[in-house]
Specification:
Blueprint lengths: L2 H8 E2 L1 H4 L8 E3 L9 H8 L7 E5 L14 H4 E5 L4 H8 L3 E3 L7 H8 L5 E6 L7 E3 L7 H7 L2 E6 L13 E3 L5 E4 L16 H11 L7 E4 L3 H12 L6 E7 L1 H8 L15 E6 L3 H7 L5 E3 L2 H4 L2 H4 L5 E6 L2 E3 L4 E2 L2 E2 L2 E2 L6 H10 L4 E5 L3 E3 L5 E3 L1 E2 L17 E4 L2 E4 L5 H10 L3 H13 L10
Parallel strand pairs: 1-10, 2-3, 2-6, 3-4, 4-5, 6-8, 8-10, 11-12, 11-15, 12-13, 13-14, 15-20, 16-23, 20-24
Antiparallel strand pairs: 7-9, 16-17, 18-19, 21-22, 24-25
Helix pairs in contact: 6-7, 8-9, 9-10, 15-16
Length: about 450
């Protein structure tokens, strides 16, 4: 097959491509750095002709053009699988909505459960000599999206890194209906949340001392996981592996320090496995055509059955707050939505199933409000509207700057005692009083 001739026959402009969209359609904009740019602008230019166009996507790294048209919520809805700060503002504008999920299930949802996309528009790397467009660092669920969509439109970006995979890391030109050549903007970047604080570093030290040589790592996004990555890079640890939902800059630093070999992994030996990635240009350069990395669908990376096969699996994730029974909220501040469930529960479950595996939920013991008031992240009961991301039965280790505790096997009063022991000292007496009211405190408990 002459792939170049086929390419030319399918090549069109963004303005022509978006004409296939009709009012009431379900569209898919892909994921993270794969969100289209020129197609988004062209679709926004058609806003006055369209109503109730529903678009799925997630983790926006730049504002969408379709969200900036007048009365955008009459024309479009944005349905997010995981929200960034940009998308939180879109909620306030009445255009964005969160779709609760367990991330590992997402490809199956497209294939079995949800309305099939009428059109998919995604940013991809240039076609290779075999006719494949690579999804870049966004394998995630995109193969399932393209497989189930009625019309597939790709927007080629010369700057998209080509991320090698095991499977489902790209789409063949024979499955593509239209090709748009974009203006090749730089790939959207996500910082690591700034320099690690003293609290981040204290928590990181408590976690790193639990990591053995040959362990396999999953790091979430944020200051604390990044601090853990930095400390690992400076440690004496060796022969570490990577199997993660999100690839972040911390892994590049650990690899540069010679700590990652993946030689002890029970599966995918020698390869760092991930579902998607977002970070700095340094990270994208490292990912490009790197055979040490393996881009794979989230139904593989996040499946607890996959994770369980890897010995000494170490999962490190953040929390917004938690209650005295060990329920973890990593998604909202009361009813105010922050991000999403993502794959946190997948890795909490999978890490514990791993031989020698450990799951860590880490957070600072307090936060300061805009008015300057110090508040505890450990609360008697979660605030009304708060989401339970990890149930109390699944929480393994909890770590704050005041220590780490293992909650597995503890009764309610033992849990309360353990959790309060790592709370900020200023709030411990108050938490004890509340625990007594909840009938989960014994007079024999340490005070």
């Amino acid at each position: 097959m002459d792939y170049q001739a086929l390419y030319q026959s399918k090549l069109t402009t963004a303005e022509e491509a978006v004409k296939v969209v009709k009012s009431g359609d379900w569209l898919d904009f892909g994921w993270c750095t794969g969100i289209p740019v020129e197609l988004d602008k062209a679709l926004a230019a058609r806003a006055d002709e369209l109503y109730d166009v529903n678009i799925r996507g997630g983790i926006l790294l730049w504002p969408l053009a379709i969200a900036q048209v007048p009365e955008a919520n009459k024309h479009f809805s944005w349905n997010s699988w995981h929200m960034s700060g940009i998308e939180r503002h879109m909620i306030d504008d009445g255009i964005a909505y969160y779709a609760p999920l367990r991330y590992s299930e997402l490809p199956r949802w497209y294939r079995e459960s949800i309305d099939k996309p009428d059109v998919v528009m995604i940013q991809v790397a240039p076609m290779d000599k075999h006719g494949y467009f690579n999804f870049g660092p966004n394998a995630s669920h995109l193969a399932a999206v393209c497989e189930t969509a009625k019309i597939v439109i790709v927007e080629v970006n010369q700057n998209m890194p080509r991320c090698l995979g095991g499977f489902e890391e790209g789409v063949h030109i024979s499955k593509v209906d239209m090709i748009v050549e974009g203006n090749n903007p730089p790939i959207g970047q996500m910082g690591g949340g700034g320099a690690a604080s003293e609290i981040d570093e204290t928590v990181a030290k408590l976690i790193v001392e639990e990591i053995p040589n040959g362990a396999c790592l999953q790091l979430g996004i944020g200051g604390m996981p990044n601090a853990v990555g930095s400390l690992i890079a400076q440690s004496d640890l060796k022969d570490l592996g990577v199997h993660t939902e999100m690839y972040v800059d911390g892994f590049v630093d650990i690899a540069a320090a010679g700590k990652i070999t993946c030689s002890k992994k029970n599966i995918d030996k020698g390869r760092q496995v991930y579902a998607f990635g977002a970070g700095t240009q340094k990270m994208y350069d490292y990912m490009d055509n790197n055979p040490a990395l393996m881009s794979a669908p989230v139904s593989y990376t996040n499946d607890a059955r996959t994770i369980a096969q890897i010995d000494n699996f170490i999962s490190i994730n953040n929390a917004v707050d938690l209650d005295l029974t060990g329920q973890i909220n990593a998604e909202s501040a009361g009813v105010k939505h922050i991000s999403g469930a993502g794959g946190q529960l997948d890795f909490v479950l999978g890490a514990y199933l791993s031989k020698g595996g450990k799951s860590f939920i880490c957070c600072s013991s307090t936060f300061t409000t805009r008015s300057g008031e110090l508040k505890s992240r450990i609360v008697p009961t979660l605030n009304p509207g708060s989401t339970v991301t990890d149930t109390r039965t699944n929480t393994h280790y909890l770590v704050t700057e005041y220590g780490k505790v293992c909650l597995k096997g503890l009764s309610t009063w033992e849990r309360a005692e353990a959790i309060i022991s790592v709370a900020h000292p200023q709030f411990r007496d108050e938490l004890i009083q509340e625990a007594e009211k909840l009938k989960i405190w014994r007079t024999s408990n340490r005070r």
